[in-house]
Amino acid sequence: MPTIQETAYPRLKSHVSVRDLAIIYTPNVDELSLANQVTRGAVAQLGFLVLLKIFQRLGYFVPISQVPSAIIEHIAGVAQIQPAITELAGYDSSGTRKRHLQIIRQTLHINCYDKEARHILMLAMSQAARTKEELADLINVGIEELVRKKYELPAFDTLVRGARHARTILYRQFYQQADASLSTEEKKRIEMLFIAEPESRFTPWNTLKQEPDSPTLTNLKVWLDRKAWLAQYHIDQQVLADIPDVKIQHFAAEARTLDAARMLEIEPKKRLTLAVSLLKVQSYRVLDDLAEMFIKRMSTIHQKGKDAMADYHARNQQRADELVQTLRDLVIAYRTEGSAQDKITAIDALLADQGDVILQRCDDHIAHAGDNYFVFLWRFYKSHRSTLFRLLRCITVQTTTQDTTFVAALHFLLENEHKTGEWLTTPKSPCLDLSWMPEAWWRLVTELHNHDEIPKRLHRRHFELCVFSQLMMELKSGDLCILGSNHYADYRDQLISWEEYHRDIAAYGEMVGLPTEGAAFVVHMQARLTEVAQKTDHAFPDNTDLRIESGEPILRRPTKATTPAGLRNFEQLVADRLEPTHLLGVLRDTEHWLNWTRFFGPISGHNTKLDVIV
């Protein structure tokens, strides 16, 4: 059960500051005049003013006996009726108080909490329960709706019971919907999740709750097998069609905390709903895990390629120096005095029969020159090749943009998976568009210098690496999505529908205080920005942290606060005097002071059936 402190339910403070007394609890001239008109005597006048100011603050009436004396004394002082304080004891039980309640409601245009108010409260809580789980959140929604409809707030326990009832009714509907949507065969298949397998003595339920290990190649293969295993428990989308995703996530989280024995103890309809929710969450989570593993494996391959390139340059530094020395000797031989034949003879003496070797070394150096490490990737990729192709066949990739050229390249790669030759012939119709290919890959894949040329063949190994590398980048950027996943799904499907937008935009604009019509929004924002700019301009002469240089504003870093004199000595004295305390003792004492274990409870959000006796 939520406490009143966890909600927005207004309550009186035990200690009222002078500022609050002046701002909140000071009657104005009109209120004092109204009190004089509707009351007779100082006691009735003071009681009326206290009820009025307290209701304006809380939204509900409380007995005068529960109002802090500081508030009563402040109001009496403003109204200049101090002697009436001592005679307020009988006001709460008087008929005058009941008459004052009606006058205050009429004056503030507030309706009493009745059946209509309860209907409004339960409707708001029921709608909020579809997306919110905590009772405190439902109570806050109910309070906001009652205030908006100008109704008096009921007792806090009434709100708690209403929130619990709204959530219970909604969950019961969800359980019945899931049970009615499942066929008999699907129910039997789900119930088998809780039956232990004879050879392993573990239930499939344990396998369903399994978490992924580190993204190694072996674990990537294991997770591909897991995806195939989950496909056996495919559940039709209509089973959870009307249940919000946030509730499915909550049901799945609750199911993950329960073992097979606990699941069998749950009411059948709820058990089926929790199991189906976890199956759905795990089915798209396995796709997220596979995408994460793929990205991390490809990143590792690229990093190993960079390390291999650095190692190659380090190992061949001497060879590069020898080539530079040979070039220097050739230039000197060419510049020797004598005829052309003498120069050729001098050059030939330097090269002797090493010309082919030097030429090959030059070709090797040019091939690995610069920062293009892609030529080193194959040795690290080839052990992953079959697994990555299997992954590509297991997922359905779609573009989130209008450019479909890379998706076509993926299909072309899959069609040529079993090719073993060095080159792949590009199709003539339809023509394979490689405009997506980065420049660094272009020469390796096509051996063409101009990106505008149409290649007739592709280097198979480099093309595979290029496609998988680009797939990694597209998934990370969101330009590609994986159907059925969560984190790598099409982000456009996670936006609200236009129907919801047109239905709620007016209320949202009113809540945040912004116009929702385009032209009015622009005018509003321009006015706000102009106001901020003018305030900044006026404050600029006194702002020592901002200066203008060459027309550009430059904000200075804040200066580090100087350490007060004697702070180090004080810290050392405190450290010397502190006695070591056992961790269990800290937990015991803080629990005694703060009662922080009140926030612990079942993940379902419902209270336990049994009371724990300590």
**Overall number of strands:** 6
In one word, what is the shape? elongated
The total count of helices amounts to: 26
CA-atom Rg in angstroms? 38 Å
Q: Termini, distance in Å? A: 19 Å
Strand residues, percent: under 5%
Alpha-beta content class? mainly alpha
- Major sheet, described briefly? 2 strands, antiparallel
Secondary structure elements and their pairing?
Elements: H1 18-23, H2 29-38, H3 42-58, H4 69-79, H5 95-108, H6 115-128, H7 135-148, H8 156-181, H9 184-191, H10 204-208, H11 217-230, H12 245-256, H13 260-265, H14 268-315, H15 317-334, H16 340-351, H17 355-367, H18 378-381, H19 385-394, E1 397-399, H20 405-415, E2 423-425, H21 439-446, E3 457-459, H22 460-477, E4 480-482, H23 498-512, H24 518-539, E5 546-549, E6 552-555, H25 567-577, H26 583-594
Antiparallel strand pairs: 1-4, 2-3, 5-6
General description of the model:
Among the domains are: 4-108, no CATH class; 115-181; 396-494, no CATH class. The protein is built from 26 helices and six strands. The strands form three sheets. A two-stranded antiparallel sheet has the order 1-4. The protein has a two-stranded antiparallel ribbon with strand order 2-3. It is elongated, with a radius of gyration of 38 Å. The model is unreliable at 610-614 (pLDDT under 50). By secondary structure, the chain is mainly α. A hairpin with a 2-residue loop joins strand 5 (546-549) and strand 6 (552-555). The protein has helices at 18-23, 29-38, 42-58, 69-79, 95-108, 115-128, 135-148, 156-181, 184-191, 204-208, 217-230, 245-256, 260-265, 268-315, 317-334, 340-351, 355-367, 378-381, 385-394, 405-415, 439-446, 460-477, 498-512, 518-539, 567-577, 583-594; strands spanning 397-399, 423-425, 457-459, 480-482, 546-549, 552-555.
